[in-house]
Amino acid sequence: MAATRRIALGVAVVCISSLAGCASGPEAPERGARDAPYKGAPAPGSVVRLIGDGSTAYTGAQPHLPRPERLKPGERPPQFVVFSWDGAGEDGQKLFSHFRKVARENRATMTYFLSGVYLLPKEKRDLYRPPRHPPGSSEIGFNDEKGIADTVEQIRLAWLEGNEIGTHFNGHFCGPDGGVGQWSVEEWKSEIAQAKQFVKTWKTNTGLKDVPPLPFDYDKELIGARTPCLEGQENFIKAASRMGFRYDSSGVNRQVWPTKREGLWDLSLQLVPFPGHSFEQLAMDYNFMVNQSGTQTQGDPALFEHWGNQMREGLLRGFYRAYDGNRAPLIIGNHFESWNGGTYMRAVEQVVKEVCTKPEVRCVSFRQLVDWLDAQDPQTLAKLRTLEVGEAPSQGWASFLPNRPAPAPRGAPGAPRP
């Protein structure tokens, strides 16, 4: 089990998982009439170009990505909500496939932060050379052939549905003894390169030659991450900014409009109300758990329902505080785990169903959010950042934003079409 780290107001973050794996078949999206159904395969006539050993492939532009548009003068911003998953993999609980279905049914896309070692079989573990640890070391499990096949299937289908595949890196090392918080910029570069390599070579490492490839070029697809235990952010950002990343979600922040650090959008996890407490709570399942049952992942069953309700209500209070206030994007993090009887998975699903179908709400991936942010007039974003947590413009949105935003440069997101 990975070490834990206490951060703001006594919360902690960790990712732990086992991946035994049970396969599930491809499913068609349920996104409404405007989205044509598909079964996970490229459309007839589309380009499929295998990359390397065929673990990945170029299949064209990702489906189901909306084109970002600039806010018009006086327009109220949409309420963005990002549901993200650390260490995403498909195991016997089938939570990856379940939440793909939840997303499709509620007009949502999400970000799945894949741990590279989930595509590396146990017998090949020595291929992983973690910084400051012996080869083959990891604080989370490696996988078996079936678990890898199941996880690859879910990643492939998720991407085809418009979801994002980010990275949670590999060995999930936390704490003072060689943890990611101590890693140098060069060590982070090595960890990132290895995380990519395991995704790009899973066929070679498993011998699963007949399994369809992942339908994207991971060198181009990978634009963001969340570090283990939210540690090591400073040097990770320096490494990531030199490797083409566009955002980071490894920090702790309030519900305010984001800024950039080292050229990356800072899309940190956020503090939201914690019902029954005087302090706020990080919007992540593990953090609710650690303040309810401690590090014991299965506490008193009599309290499971209450604890899940606390998380649901905390996330909803955070949502409505933004929705009725400054419209800052709400960032939520989770794990595919059944802690405290699965009560947090129930809470997350209930939140998705309540918020994602509301007017002016966009439940999106981090990729879609940064595309939208990059499309906006910098003056507009600067004005939005003047709003405090839960603060709506006193004179209303119509008079708040600049009357004449600067035009987007030609070719930039949100620029008029030629």
Structure description:
With 418 residues, this protein is an alpha/beta fold. The protein has one domain: Alpha-Beta Barrel (TIM Barrel), CATH 3.20.20.370. Helices cover 28% and strands 12% of the residues. The strands form five sheets. Strands 5, 6, 7, 15 and 16 form a five-stranded parallel β-sheet that branches. A four-stranded mixed β-sheet has the order 8-9-12-11, sandwiched between helices. Strands 10-13-14 form a three-stranded mixed β-sheet. The chain is globular, with a radius of gyration of 21 Å. Mean pLDDT is 88; it is low at 1-41. It comes from Streptomyces thermogriseus.
Descriptive keywords:
418 residues; TIM Barrel; four-stranded mixed β-sheet; disordered N terminus; signal; Glyco_hydro/deAcase_b/a-brl; CE4; Secreted protein
Beta content comes to 5-15%
Residues in helices, as a percent range: 25-40%
Count of helical regions:
11
Number of domain modules = 1
- Per DSSP E runs of 2 or more residues, the count of β-strands stands at 16
Query: What integer value in Å does the Rg equal?
Result: 21 Å
- CATH architecture assignment: Alpha-Beta Barrel
H/E element order:
EEEEEHEHEHHHEHEEEEEEHHEHEHH
**The CATH class:** Alpha Beta
Distance between the termini: 54 Å
- On the 0 to 100 scale, the average pLDDT is 88
CATH fold name: TIM Barrel
CATH superfamily: Glycoside hydrolase/deacetylase
- Biggest beta-sheet profile: 5 strands, parallel
* Estimated structural class: alpha/beta
Uncertain stretches: 1-41
